[in-house]
């Protein structure tokens, strides 16, 4: 036990001695959370800035239409004159403008809406919402004009009844959590890739110490090769745990992202995947003849598998032929577990996913141990 603790401490100090390791282990998880928030966190957006110009006087239909626009959600209305409106549009201080020209109210009352104009330099993607709401409102009023067939008294009676509708509509505001879920999912995807690369880099210390002969000097002491490898696994586990805690803390306390998953459950499933990452790292060095070959194998295995499993991009945009392969990747089962937990599933109900992650970890580790035992170049590891 004393030798194990000494080796663990030595390896941790060796890891933290290099700034690049600190960057990969502790800074990049925070950067991943920030990138995910930048991509998915701006879903609510600023209100649409709409400038209104009324050239039709104090007609009731025109005033009621302006009042209708002012009640729209996510729309900031400013009533101004035509000259100021043009300056605001040109300066980018207004997203779109609605101009009620003289004769607007009269045309609506006749059942043929006209004398209204929308101005925007930002295209249909900005004007579509206001335009559709205006079209719906004005069409309803115009239908009354068509029914009245030019009879002023009939129209005003119908319009008064329409304006003072007796029914009430109750609305309940439901928070849209799609952006938060997407940001959480993508952050976890980036974290998964970082965990796998971090674990592979930490495990490659074994190969590096073989190359600089440190390993053989340690083996000349009473310390066994199994204790040496076990100390590296413990360091791996500690570093991955710290990565996960930093990411959870930063998401919840700094970015105020509620993933919808209890923190303890989140840490448990991430640490289960951490065992898989460690198993894969051991497998890589069992095949590698040196640190350079281990680095090449990392890129050859980790990057494509993360792409196919949906760590870098949502699985939905990946071609169907590759998507069918995602079930063979441990990253997929982790992300699938996270997705189901966010949608209300219980952790106990996802036992198959958890067993699959444990199975991946066990299989990779056993294959690595078997390969170590058969490889003459690494027979002193195990």
> What count of structural domains?
2
Radius of gyration: 32 Å
Strand arrangement across the biggest beta sheet: 2-1-3-4
Helix fraction by DSSP (H/I, runs of at least 4):
55-70%
Quantity of strands, as a count: 4
Share of β-strand residues: 5-15%
Largest sheet: 4 strands, mixed
Low-confidence sequence ranges: 378-382
Distance between the termini: 17 Å
Q: How would the global form be characterised?
A: elongated
Number of H- or I-type helical stretches = 16
Instruction: Return the structural class.
Output: mainly alpha
SSE ordering: HHEHEHEHEHHHHHHHHHHH
Mean pLDDT: 81
Commentary on this structure:
The chain is mostly helical and 382 residues long. The protein has 2 domains: 2-41 and 177-378; 48-163, abc type-2 transporter like domain (abc type-2 transporter like fold). Helices cover 67% and strands 5% of the residues. The chain contains 16 helices and 4 strands. It has helices at 2-16, 19-40, 60-70, 82-91, 104-109, 124-148, 152-163, 178-203, 205-211, 214-219, 225-254, 263-287, 291-309, 320-323, 330-342, 351-374; strands spanning 48-54, 75-79, 96-100, 116-119. A 4-stranded mixed beta sheet has the order 2-1-3-4, sandwiched between helices. β1 (48-54), α3 and β2 form a beta-alpha-beta unit. The longest helix has 30 residues, at 225-254. The radius of gyration is 32 Å and the shape is elongated. Residues 378-382 have low confidence and may be disordered.
